[in-house]
Amino acid sequence: MAALLQQRIRALLDADASATLAGIRRGIEKESLRITPDGHLAQTPHPKALGSALTHPYITTDYSEALLEFVTPPTTDLQQPLAFLDDLHRFVYNNIGDEILWVNSMPCLMGPDSDIPIADYGTSNVGLMKNIYRRGLGHRYGRAMQTIAGIHYNFSLPAEFWQLHQLLEKDQRPLQSYISDRYFDLLRNFQRYSWLLLYLFGASPAICPSFMQGRGHDRLQALDKSLYTPYATSLRMSDIGYQNKAQSAVELNYNDLESYVQSLTRAINTPDPEYEKIGVHVDGEYRQLNTNILQIENEYYSSARPKRSIERGERPTLALERRGVEYIEMRALDLNPFEPVGIRERDLRFLDLFAVWCLLQESPELDETDLRATRDNIRQVAYDGRNPELEINRRGEAVRLHDWAERQLEQMQPIAELFDGLLGDRQYRDVLEEQRLRVAEPERTPSARVLAEMERRNQSFYEFAMDQALLHRDHFLGRPLDPTKLGQFEHLASCSLEQQHAREAEPEPPFEEYLAEYFR
Protein backbone atom coordinates (compact mmCIF):
# COMPACT_ATOMS: atom_id res chain seq x y z
CA MET A 1 0.00 0.00 0.00
CA ALA A 2 1.25 3.46 -0.87
CA ALA A 3 2.81 5.13 2.15
CA LEU A 4 0.66 8.28 2.09
CA LEU A 5 -2.58 6.31 1.74
CA GLN A 6 -1.58 4.04 4.62
CA GLN A 7 -0.60 7.01 6.75
CA ARG A 8 -3.89 8.84 6.16
CA ILE A 9 -6.05 5.80 6.81
CA ARG A 10 -4.15 5.05 10.02
CA ALA A 11 -4.59 8.64 11.21
CA LEU A 12 -8.36 8.47 10.59
CA LEU A 13 -8.65 5.10 12.32
CA ASP A 14 -6.62 6.32 15.32
CA ALA A 15 -8.78 9.46 15.52
CA ASP A 16 -11.91 7.29 15.44
CA ALA A 17 -13.14 9.19 12.37
CA SER A 18 -15.91 6.71 11.57
CA ALA A 19 -18.56 8.92 13.19
CA THR A 20 -17.76 11.80 10.82
CA LEU A 21 -18.77 9.59 7.85
CA ALA A 22 -22.35 9.57 9.12
CA GLY A 23 -22.73 13.00 7.55
CA ILE A 24 -21.95 11.91 3.98
CA ARG A 25 -24.65 13.29 1.69
CA ARG A 26 -25.72 11.33 -1.36
CA GLY A 27 -28.09 11.88 -4.24
CA ILE A 28 -28.85 10.10 -7.50
CA GLU A 29 -29.75 11.36 -10.97
CA LYS A 30 -31.12 8.59 -13.17
CA GLU A 31 -32.11 8.80 -16.83
CA SER A 32 -34.62 6.56 -18.61
CA LEU A 33 -36.10 6.75 -22.10
CA ARG A 34 -39.85 6.59 -22.56
CA ILE A 35 -40.60 4.03 -25.27
CA THR A 36 -43.67 2.73 -27.08
CA PRO A 37 -45.00 -0.79 -26.46
CA ASP A 38 -43.17 -1.97 -29.60
CA GLY A 39 -39.83 -0.59 -28.39
CA HIS A 40 -39.48 2.62 -30.36
CA LEU A 41 -38.67 6.02 -28.89
CA ALA A 42 -41.82 7.74 -27.64
CA GLN A 43 -42.84 10.75 -29.74
CA THR A 44 -45.28 12.14 -27.17
CA PRO A 45 -44.56 15.36 -25.23
CA HIS A 46 -43.39 15.22 -21.63
CA PRO A 47 -46.63 14.25 -19.81
CA LYS A 48 -48.27 17.22 -18.09
CA ALA A 49 -49.26 14.95 -15.22
CA LEU A 50 -45.55 14.70 -14.36
CA GLY A 51 -45.27 18.48 -14.05
CA SER A 52 -42.92 20.95 -15.69
CA ALA A 53 -39.56 19.64 -16.90
CA LEU A 54 -38.23 23.17 -16.31
CA THR A 55 -39.21 23.67 -12.68
CA HIS A 56 -40.03 20.27 -11.14
CA PRO A 57 -37.36 19.50 -8.52
CA TYR A 58 -37.34 15.73 -9.04
CA ILE A 59 -38.71 14.85 -12.51
CA THR A 60 -37.24 16.55 -15.56
CA THR A 61 -35.88 15.67 -19.00
CA ASP A 62 -32.35 15.48 -20.32
CA TYR A 63 -31.65 15.85 -24.04
CA SER A 64 -34.83 14.47 -25.54
CA GLU A 65 -38.46 15.07 -24.68
CA ALA A 66 -38.54 11.28 -24.24
CA LEU A 67 -35.49 11.07 -21.95
CA LEU A 68 -36.78 11.34 -18.40
CA GLU A 69 -34.41 12.27 -15.61
CA PHE A 70 -35.19 11.42 -11.99
CA VAL A 71 -33.43 13.47 -9.31
CA THR A 72 -33.37 12.53 -5.63
CA PRO A 73 -32.82 15.12 -2.90
CA PRO A 74 -29.45 14.88 -1.10
CA THR A 75 -29.61 12.95 2.15
CA THR A 76 -27.36 11.34 4.73
CA ASP A 77 -29.51 8.17 4.68
CA LEU A 78 -27.97 5.80 2.14
CA GLN A 79 -31.22 3.90 1.55
CA GLN A 80 -33.33 7.03 1.02
CA PRO A 81 -32.23 7.87 -2.57
CA LEU A 82 -33.18 4.37 -3.71
CA ALA A 83 -36.54 4.51 -1.91
CA PHE A 84 -37.25 7.92 -3.44
CA LEU A 85 -36.29 6.65 -6.91
CA ASP A 86 -38.69 3.76 -6.41
CA ASP A 87 -41.52 6.19 -5.53
CA LEU A 88 -40.74 8.37 -8.57
CA HIS A 89 -40.93 5.35 -10.87
CA ARG A 90 -44.26 4.29 -9.43
CA PHE A 91 -45.64 7.81 -9.87
CA VAL A 92 -44.39 8.03 -13.46
CA TYR A 93 -45.87 4.68 -14.41
CA ASN A 94 -49.18 5.93 -13.04
CA ASN A 95 -49.08 8.73 -15.64
CA ILE A 96 -47.56 7.48 -18.91
CA GLY A 97 -50.32 5.21 -20.19
CA ASP A 98 -48.99 2.23 -22.14
CA GLU A 99 -45.50 3.67 -22.51
CA ILE A 100 -42.58 1.85 -20.90
CA LEU A 101 -39.32 2.99 -19.31
CA TRP A 102 -36.29 1.56 -21.11
CA VAL A 103 -33.94 -0.02 -18.57
CA ASN A 104 -30.66 -0.04 -20.50
CA SER A 105 -28.11 2.71 -21.02
CA MET A 106 -27.91 2.17 -24.77
CA PRO A 107 -31.18 3.17 -26.45
CA CYS A 108 -34.04 1.22 -27.95
CA LEU A 109 -35.01 0.87 -31.62
CA MET A 110 -33.93 4.11 -33.28
CA GLY A 111 -35.18 5.85 -36.39
CA PRO A 112 -33.37 8.72 -38.10
CA ASP A 113 -32.04 11.61 -36.03
CA SER A 114 -34.98 13.75 -37.07
CA ASP A 115 -37.31 11.36 -35.20
CA ILE A 116 -35.65 12.14 -31.86
CA PRO A 117 -37.67 14.96 -30.23
CA ILE A 118 -35.59 17.63 -28.50
CA ALA A 119 -36.72 18.54 -24.99
CA ASP A 120 -39.05 21.55 -24.75
CA TYR A 121 -38.92 23.84 -21.70
CA GLY A 122 -41.41 26.53 -22.66
CA THR A 123 -41.10 30.14 -23.73
CA SER A 124 -39.13 31.78 -20.91
CA ASN A 125 -35.59 32.84 -21.71
CA VAL A 126 -34.09 30.10 -19.57
CA GLY A 127 -36.41 27.54 -21.19
CA LEU A 128 -35.44 28.69 -24.68
CA MET A 129 -31.76 28.57 -23.77
CA LYS A 130 -32.05 24.97 -22.56
CA ASN A 131 -33.81 23.97 -25.79
CA ILE A 132 -31.34 25.77 -28.08
CA TYR A 133 -28.40 24.23 -26.23
CA ARG A 134 -29.85 20.82 -27.03
CA ARG A 135 -30.35 21.76 -30.66
CA GLY A 136 -26.66 22.58 -30.71
CA LEU A 137 -25.76 19.18 -29.29
CA GLY A 138 -27.77 17.56 -32.06
CA HIS A 139 -25.99 19.55 -34.77
CA ARG A 140 -22.56 18.90 -33.23
CA TYR A 141 -22.72 15.24 -32.26
CA GLY A 142 -25.96 13.88 -33.70
CA ARG A 143 -29.12 13.33 -31.71
CA ALA A 144 -28.70 9.57 -31.26
CA MET A 145 -25.75 9.98 -28.89
CA GLN A 146 -27.91 12.19 -26.68
CA THR A 147 -30.40 9.36 -26.04
CA ILE A 148 -27.82 7.33 -24.09
CA ALA A 149 -28.82 7.07 -20.42
CA GLY A 150 -26.80 6.72 -17.25
CA ILE A 151 -26.75 7.17 -13.51
CA HIS A 152 -24.97 9.99 -11.69
CA TYR A 153 -24.03 9.64 -8.04
CA ASN A 154 -23.64 12.89 -6.11
CA PHE A 155 -21.35 12.57 -3.10
CA SER A 156 -20.13 15.00 -0.46
CA LEU A 157 -18.25 14.56 2.79
CA PRO A 158 -19.47 16.51 5.84
CA ALA A 159 -17.76 19.50 7.45
CA GLU A 160 -16.91 17.36 10.50
CA PHE A 161 -14.85 15.00 8.35
CA TRP A 162 -13.04 17.85 6.59
CA GLN A 163 -12.25 19.62 9.86
CA LEU A 164 -10.79 16.47 11.39
CA HIS A 165 -8.92 15.48 8.24
CA GLN A 166 -7.43 18.97 7.89
CA LEU A 167 -6.34 18.89 11.52
CA LEU A 168 -4.66 15.51 11.05
CA GLU A 169 -2.92 16.83 7.92
CA LYS A 170 -1.72 19.92 9.84
CA ASP A 171 -3.05 22.10 7.02
CA GLN A 172 -3.51 25.83 7.72
CA ARG A 173 -5.55 26.92 4.69
CA PRO A 174 -9.10 28.31 5.00
CA LEU A 175 -11.41 25.31 5.30
CA GLN A 176 -13.23 25.83 1.98
CA SER A 177 -9.95 26.22 0.09
CA TYR A 178 -8.73 23.00 1.66
CA ILE A 179 -12.00 21.23 0.77
CA SER A 180 -11.87 22.36 -2.85
CA ASP A 181 -8.23 21.31 -3.23
CA ARG A 182 -8.88 17.91 -1.69
CA TYR A 183 -11.91 17.32 -3.91
CA PHE A 184 -9.63 17.96 -6.87
CA ASP A 185 -7.25 15.33 -5.47
CA LEU A 186 -10.24 12.98 -5.57
CA LEU A 187 -11.17 14.05 -9.10
CA ARG A 188 -7.70 13.46 -10.53
CA ASN A 189 -7.59 9.96 -9.12
CA PHE A 190 -11.15 9.34 -10.32
CA GLN A 191 -9.92 10.17 -13.84
CA ARG A 192 -6.99 7.76 -13.42
CA TYR A 193 -8.97 4.85 -12.04
CA SER A 194 -12.55 5.13 -13.34
CA TRP A 195 -11.79 2.21 -15.67
CA LEU A 196 -12.31 0.03 -12.59
CA LEU A 197 -15.94 1.20 -12.35
CA LEU A 198 -16.48 0.33 -16.01
CA TYR A 199 -15.22 -3.18 -15.35
CA LEU A 200 -17.22 -3.71 -12.15
CA PHE A 201 -20.51 -1.99 -13.10
CA GLY A 202 -20.56 -1.67 -16.89
CA ALA A 203 -23.79 -3.17 -18.23
CA SER A 204 -23.85 -2.19 -21.92
CA PRO A 205 -21.85 -4.85 -23.79
CA ALA A 206 -24.27 -4.91 -26.75
CA ILE A 207 -26.43 -2.47 -28.69
CA CYS A 208 -29.18 -2.34 -31.31
CA PRO A 209 -27.74 -1.95 -34.84
CA SER A 210 -30.18 0.95 -35.35
CA PHE A 211 -28.02 3.06 -33.01
CA MET A 212 -25.15 2.87 -35.50
CA GLN A 213 -27.15 3.62 -38.66
CA GLY A 214 -25.11 5.73 -41.05
CA ARG A 215 -21.95 5.36 -38.93
CA GLY A 216 -19.02 3.02 -39.32
CA HIS A 217 -17.58 0.94 -36.49
CA ASP A 218 -14.27 -0.90 -36.42
CA ARG A 219 -14.54 -3.06 -33.31
CA LEU A 220 -18.18 -4.13 -33.11
CA GLN A 221 -19.21 -7.61 -34.21
CA ALA A 222 -22.60 -8.94 -35.25
CA LEU A 223 -24.44 -11.17 -32.76
CA ASP A 224 -27.86 -12.30 -33.95
CA LYS A 225 -29.66 -8.94 -34.48
CA SER A 226 -27.26 -7.10 -32.20
CA LEU A 227 -23.80 -5.52 -32.24
CA TYR A 228 -21.31 -6.28 -29.46
CA THR A 229 -17.76 -7.21 -28.57
CA PRO A 230 -17.22 -10.47 -26.68
CA TYR A 231 -15.51 -8.89 -23.65
CA ALA A 232 -17.21 -5.47 -23.66
CA THR A 233 -18.21 -3.85 -20.38
CA SER A 234 -19.65 -0.42 -21.21
CA LEU A 235 -20.13 0.56 -24.84
CA ARG A 236 -21.84 3.64 -23.40
CA MET A 237 -18.40 4.84 -22.27
CA SER A 238 -16.63 3.88 -25.51
CA ASP A 239 -15.98 6.11 -28.50
CA ILE A 240 -19.37 5.18 -29.99
CA GLY A 241 -20.96 6.61 -26.83
CA TYR A 242 -19.98 9.49 -24.59
CA GLN A 243 -16.23 9.31 -25.16
CA ASN A 244 -16.62 10.62 -28.69
CA LYS A 245 -13.78 11.97 -30.83
CA ALA A 246 -15.44 15.37 -31.24
CA GLN A 247 -14.38 16.37 -27.71
CA SER A 248 -10.93 14.79 -27.78
CA ALA A 249 -9.29 18.19 -28.27
CA VAL A 250 -10.79 19.58 -25.06
CA GLU A 251 -8.27 19.18 -22.25
CA LEU A 252 -9.60 20.28 -18.89
CA ASN A 253 -7.06 20.96 -16.17
CA TYR A 254 -7.95 19.07 -12.97
CA ASN A 255 -4.90 20.18 -11.02
CA ASP A 256 -6.79 22.78 -8.95
CA LEU A 257 -10.04 24.75 -8.96
CA GLU A 258 -8.56 27.86 -10.58
CA SER A 259 -6.95 25.89 -13.41
CA TYR A 260 -10.13 23.88 -13.95
CA VAL A 261 -12.31 27.00 -14.23
CA GLN A 262 -9.80 28.70 -16.52
CA SER A 263 -9.53 25.72 -18.89
CA LEU A 264 -13.30 25.24 -18.99
CA THR A 265 -13.88 28.97 -19.55
CA ARG A 266 -11.30 28.97 -22.34
CA ALA A 267 -13.18 26.19 -24.15
CA ILE A 268 -16.47 28.08 -23.73
CA ASN A 269 -14.92 31.26 -25.21
CA THR A 270 -12.84 29.77 -28.06
CA PRO A 271 -14.49 29.57 -31.51
CA ASP A 272 -14.40 26.26 -33.36
CA PRO A 273 -14.17 26.34 -37.18
CA GLU A 274 -16.43 23.29 -37.60
CA TYR A 275 -19.14 24.77 -35.40
CA GLU A 276 -18.86 28.11 -37.18
CA LYS A 277 -20.00 26.27 -40.33
CA ILE A 278 -23.22 25.30 -38.52
CA GLY A 279 -24.03 28.92 -37.71
CA VAL A 280 -25.92 30.32 -34.75
CA HIS A 281 -29.01 32.13 -35.99
CA VAL A 282 -29.90 30.80 -39.45
CA ASP A 283 -33.11 31.49 -41.39
CA GLY A 284 -34.72 33.01 -38.33
CA GLU A 285 -33.98 30.05 -36.03
CA TYR A 286 -31.26 29.31 -33.48
CA ARG A 287 -29.13 26.26 -34.25
CA GLN A 288 -26.87 26.53 -31.21
CA LEU A 289 -26.01 29.00 -28.46
CA ASN A 290 -22.65 29.93 -29.98
CA THR A 291 -19.91 28.54 -32.22
CA ASN A 292 -17.36 27.92 -29.48
CA ILE A 293 -15.67 24.62 -28.59
CA LEU A 294 -18.24 24.23 -25.80
CA GLN A 295 -21.56 26.07 -25.76
CA ILE A 296 -21.76 25.87 -21.97
CA GLU A 297 -19.99 23.99 -19.17
CA ASN A 298 -22.21 20.90 -19.21
CA GLU A 299 -21.40 20.09 -22.83
CA TYR A 300 -18.06 18.59 -21.86
CA TYR A 301 -18.51 14.96 -20.86
CA SER A 302 -16.38 13.83 -17.95
CA SER A 303 -16.58 10.72 -15.78
CA ALA A 304 -16.72 13.00 -12.70
CA ARG A 305 -17.31 16.72 -12.12
CA PRO A 306 -16.80 19.21 -9.29
CA LYS A 307 -20.17 20.79 -8.43
CA ARG A 308 -21.60 23.70 -6.49
CA SER A 309 -25.31 24.49 -6.14
CA ILE A 310 -26.09 27.45 -8.38
CA GLU A 311 -28.36 30.40 -7.91
CA ARG A 312 -30.91 31.37 -10.54
CA GLY A 313 -29.14 32.58 -13.68
CA GLU A 314 -25.68 31.76 -12.33
CA ARG A 315 -23.14 29.91 -14.45
CA PRO A 316 -21.66 26.74 -12.89
CA THR A 317 -18.07 27.98 -13.26
CA LEU A 318 -18.92 31.22 -11.45
CA ALA A 319 -20.58 29.30 -8.62
CA LEU A 320 -17.44 27.17 -8.22
CA GLU A 321 -15.19 30.22 -8.38
CA ARG A 322 -17.23 32.14 -5.80
CA ARG A 323 -18.01 29.43 -3.26
CA GLY A 324 -15.75 26.46 -3.98
CA VAL A 325 -16.51 22.79 -4.55
CA GLU A 326 -19.55 21.48 -2.68
CA TYR A 327 -19.83 17.91 -3.96
CA ILE A 328 -18.64 15.50 -6.62
CA GLU A 329 -20.84 14.14 -9.40
CA MET A 330 -19.73 10.64 -10.47
CA ARG A 331 -20.96 9.92 -13.99
CA ALA A 332 -19.36 6.62 -15.07
CA LEU A 333 -22.24 4.26 -14.18
CA ASP A 334 -24.45 2.38 -16.64
CA LEU A 335 -28.03 1.53 -15.81
CA ASN A 336 -28.15 -2.00 -14.42
CA PRO A 337 -30.98 -3.72 -16.35
CA PHE A 338 -31.35 -6.34 -13.62
CA GLU A 339 -32.33 -3.71 -11.02
CA PRO A 340 -35.75 -1.98 -11.18
CA VAL A 341 -34.33 1.49 -10.42
CA GLY A 342 -31.06 0.79 -12.24
CA ILE A 343 -28.71 0.55 -9.24
CA ARG A 344 -28.38 -1.32 -5.92
CA GLU A 345 -27.65 -0.21 -2.39
CA ARG A 346 -24.48 -2.33 -2.46
CA ASP A 347 -23.29 -0.36 -5.50
CA LEU A 348 -23.68 2.91 -3.60
CA ARG A 349 -21.60 1.52 -0.75
CA PHE A 350 -18.79 0.65 -3.15
CA LEU A 351 -18.96 4.14 -4.69
CA ASP A 352 -18.49 5.54 -1.17
CA LEU A 353 -15.40 3.36 -0.78
CA PHE A 354 -14.04 4.25 -4.19
CA ALA A 355 -14.49 8.00 -3.64
CA VAL A 356 -12.75 7.98 -0.25
CA TRP A 357 -9.94 5.79 -1.65
CA CYS A 358 -9.45 8.31 -4.48
CA LEU A 359 -9.37 11.11 -1.90
CA LEU A 360 -6.90 9.58 0.54
CA GLN A 361 -4.20 8.25 -1.74
CA GLU A 362 -1.49 10.31 -3.36
CA SER A 363 -2.82 12.38 -6.26
CA PRO A 364 -0.06 14.00 -8.32
CA GLU A 365 -0.98 16.47 -11.03
CA LEU A 366 -2.26 14.97 -14.26
CA ASP A 367 0.30 15.29 -17.04
CA GLU A 368 0.07 14.25 -20.69
CA THR A 369 1.18 10.70 -19.83
CA ASP A 370 -1.66 10.37 -17.31
CA LEU A 371 -4.23 11.82 -19.68
CA ARG A 372 -3.19 9.52 -22.49
CA ALA A 373 -3.28 6.51 -20.16
CA THR A 374 -6.72 7.51 -18.90
CA ARG A 375 -8.15 7.72 -22.42
CA ASP A 376 -6.51 4.46 -23.46
CA ASN A 377 -7.73 2.59 -20.40
CA ILE A 378 -11.34 3.77 -20.71
CA ARG A 379 -11.41 2.74 -24.36
CA GLN A 380 -9.74 -0.62 -23.71
CA VAL A 381 -11.93 -1.56 -20.76
CA ALA A 382 -15.12 -0.39 -22.49
CA TYR A 383 -14.50 -2.73 -25.43
CA ASP A 384 -12.42 -5.53 -23.92
CA GLY A 385 -12.50 -5.25 -20.12
CA ARG A 386 -13.42 -8.86 -19.32
CA ASN A 387 -10.64 -10.30 -21.45
CA PRO A 388 -8.52 -12.19 -18.86
CA GLU A 389 -5.36 -11.30 -20.79
CA LEU A 390 -6.13 -7.59 -21.13
CA GLU A 391 -3.28 -5.27 -20.22
CA ILE A 392 -3.87 -1.58 -19.53
CA ASN A 393 -1.65 1.46 -19.17
CA ARG A 394 -0.19 2.44 -15.81
CA ARG A 395 1.85 5.55 -16.64
CA GLY A 396 3.38 3.96 -19.71
CA GLU A 397 3.73 0.48 -18.18
CA ALA A 398 1.53 -2.35 -19.44
CA VAL A 399 -0.10 -4.19 -16.52
CA ARG A 400 -2.79 -6.85 -16.41
CA LEU A 401 -6.16 -5.36 -15.49
CA HIS A 402 -6.81 -8.29 -13.16
CA ASP A 403 -3.62 -7.67 -11.17
CA TRP A 404 -4.04 -3.90 -10.91
CA ALA A 405 -7.72 -4.19 -9.92
CA GLU A 406 -6.88 -6.73 -7.20
CA ARG A 407 -4.25 -4.38 -5.77
CA GLN A 408 -6.65 -1.43 -5.74
CA LEU A 409 -9.39 -3.38 -3.99
CA GLU A 410 -6.88 -4.60 -1.41
CA GLN A 411 -6.00 -0.97 -0.63
CA MET A 412 -9.68 -0.26 0.07
CA GLN A 413 -9.92 -2.87 2.84
CA PRO A 414 -9.02 -0.55 5.76
CA ILE A 415 -11.38 2.11 4.35
CA ALA A 416 -14.16 -0.48 4.40
CA GLU A 417 -13.25 -1.15 8.05
CA LEU A 418 -13.51 2.59 8.73
CA PHE A 419 -17.04 2.65 7.29
CA ASP A 420 -18.03 -0.54 9.08
CA GLY A 421 -16.85 0.99 12.34
CA LEU A 422 -19.67 3.50 11.92
CA LEU A 423 -22.30 0.83 11.21
CA GLY A 424 -21.12 -1.79 13.68
CA ASP A 425 -21.30 -4.52 11.01
CA ARG A 426 -19.39 -5.59 7.89
CA GLN A 427 -21.56 -4.33 5.02
CA TYR A 428 -18.73 -2.41 3.36
CA ARG A 429 -16.30 -5.28 3.69
CA ASP A 430 -18.90 -7.61 2.17
CA VAL A 431 -19.37 -5.23 -0.76
CA LEU A 432 -15.61 -5.15 -1.25
CA GLU A 433 -15.47 -8.94 -1.26
CA GLU A 434 -18.19 -9.00 -3.93
CA GLN A 435 -16.05 -6.80 -6.17
CA ARG A 436 -13.02 -9.02 -5.60
CA LEU A 437 -15.07 -11.96 -6.84
CA ARG A 438 -16.02 -9.97 -9.95
CA VAL A 439 -12.34 -9.40 -10.67
CA ALA A 440 -11.49 -13.06 -10.11
CA GLU A 441 -14.55 -14.31 -12.01
CA PRO A 442 -15.53 -11.88 -14.81
CA GLU A 443 -18.73 -13.82 -15.49
CA ARG A 444 -20.14 -12.24 -12.30
CA THR A 445 -20.02 -8.73 -13.77
CA PRO A 446 -23.27 -7.11 -15.02
CA SER A 447 -21.92 -6.92 -18.59
CA ALA A 448 -21.19 -10.66 -18.62
CA ARG A 449 -24.62 -11.38 -17.14
CA VAL A 450 -26.31 -9.41 -19.94
CA LEU A 451 -24.57 -11.46 -22.63
CA ALA A 452 -25.16 -14.70 -20.74
CA GLU A 453 -28.89 -13.97 -20.46
CA MET A 454 -29.09 -13.08 -24.15
CA GLU A 455 -27.49 -16.44 -24.96
CA ARG A 456 -29.59 -18.40 -22.46
CA ARG A 457 -32.84 -16.90 -23.74
CA ASN A 458 -31.69 -16.96 -27.38
CA GLN A 459 -32.49 -13.24 -27.61
CA SER A 460 -31.09 -10.19 -29.34
CA PHE A 461 -30.09 -7.19 -27.23
CA TYR A 462 -33.41 -5.53 -28.06
CA GLU A 463 -35.43 -8.61 -27.06
CA PHE A 464 -33.51 -9.00 -23.81
CA ALA A 465 -33.82 -5.32 -22.92
CA MET A 466 -37.52 -5.25 -23.79
CA ASP A 467 -38.20 -8.25 -21.55
CA GLN A 468 -36.37 -6.56 -18.67
CA ALA A 469 -38.30 -3.33 -19.24
CA LEU A 470 -41.62 -5.16 -19.12
CA LEU A 471 -40.54 -7.03 -15.99
CA HIS A 472 -39.68 -3.78 -14.21
CA ARG A 473 -42.86 -2.09 -15.45
CA ASP A 474 -44.91 -4.84 -13.82
CA HIS A 475 -42.81 -4.46 -10.66
CA PHE A 476 -43.80 -0.79 -10.34
CA LEU A 477 -47.40 -1.06 -11.55
CA GLY A 478 -47.99 -3.89 -9.09
CA ARG A 479 -47.09 -1.57 -6.19
CA PRO A 480 -49.13 1.63 -6.57
CA LEU A 481 -48.35 4.58 -4.31
CA ASP A 482 -50.52 5.05 -1.27
CA PRO A 483 -53.03 7.95 -1.58
CA THR A 484 -51.03 10.29 0.65
CA LYS A 485 -47.78 9.91 -1.29
CA LEU A 486 -49.61 10.03 -4.61
CA GLY A 487 -51.24 13.29 -3.56
CA GLN A 488 -47.87 14.76 -2.62
CA PHE A 489 -46.39 13.99 -6.04
CA GLU A 490 -49.49 15.32 -7.80
CA HIS A 491 -49.18 18.54 -5.78
CA LEU A 492 -45.50 18.86 -6.74
CA ALA A 493 -46.39 18.41 -10.42
CA SER A 494 -49.17 21.01 -10.24
CA CYS A 495 -46.95 23.53 -8.43
CA SER A 496 -44.16 23.09 -10.97
CA LEU A 497 -46.55 23.89 -13.84
CA GLU A 498 -47.68 27.01 -12.01
CA GLN A 499 -44.05 28.02 -11.46
CA GLN A 500 -43.29 27.66 -15.16
CA HIS A 501 -46.35 29.71 -16.11
CA ALA A 502 -45.38 32.40 -13.58
CA ARG A 503 -41.84 32.52 -14.96
CA GLU A 504 -43.14 32.88 -18.50
CA ALA A 505 -45.42 35.73 -17.39
CA GLU A 506 -42.53 37.72 -15.92
CA PRO A 507 -41.24 40.65 -18.00
CA GLU A 508 -37.91 39.65 -19.58
CA PRO A 509 -35.40 41.27 -21.90
CA PRO A 510 -35.21 40.03 -25.52
CA PHE A 511 -33.58 36.62 -25.74
CA GLU A 512 -30.48 38.00 -27.49
CA GLU A 513 -29.87 40.36 -24.56
CA TYR A 514 -30.49 37.59 -22.03
CA LEU A 515 -27.95 35.36 -23.78
CA ALA A 516 -25.34 38.09 -24.00
CA GLU A 517 -25.75 38.89 -20.30
CA TYR A 518 -25.52 35.21 -19.33
CA PHE A 519 -22.17 34.82 -21.09
CA ARG A 520 -20.81 38.18 -19.99
Characterise the protein shown here.
It is globular and about 60 Å long. Strand 7 and strand 8 (226-228) form a beta hairpin. Helix 10 (345-360) packs across helix 14 (427-440). The strands form 4 sheets. Strands 1, 2, 3, 4, 5, 11 and 12 form a 7-stranded antiparallel sheet that branches. It has a 3-stranded antiparallel sheet with strand order 6-8-7, with no helix packed on it. Strands 9-10 form a two-stranded antiparallel sheet. The protein has 520 residues and is of the alpha+beta class. It has helices at 3-14, 80-93, 125-141, 159-169, 175-193, 195-201, 257-269, 273-278, 316-323, 345-360, 368-384, 401-411, 413-423, 427-440, 446-457, 461-477, 483-505, 511-518, and strands at residues 25-35, 59-61, 67-71, 100-101, 151-156, 206-207, 221-223, 226-228, 281-282, 285-286, 304-307, 327-333, 391-394, 397-400. The longest helix has 23 residues, at 483-505. The chain has one domain (3-242, 301-518): Creatine Kinase, Chain A, domain 2. It starts with a helix and ends with a helix.
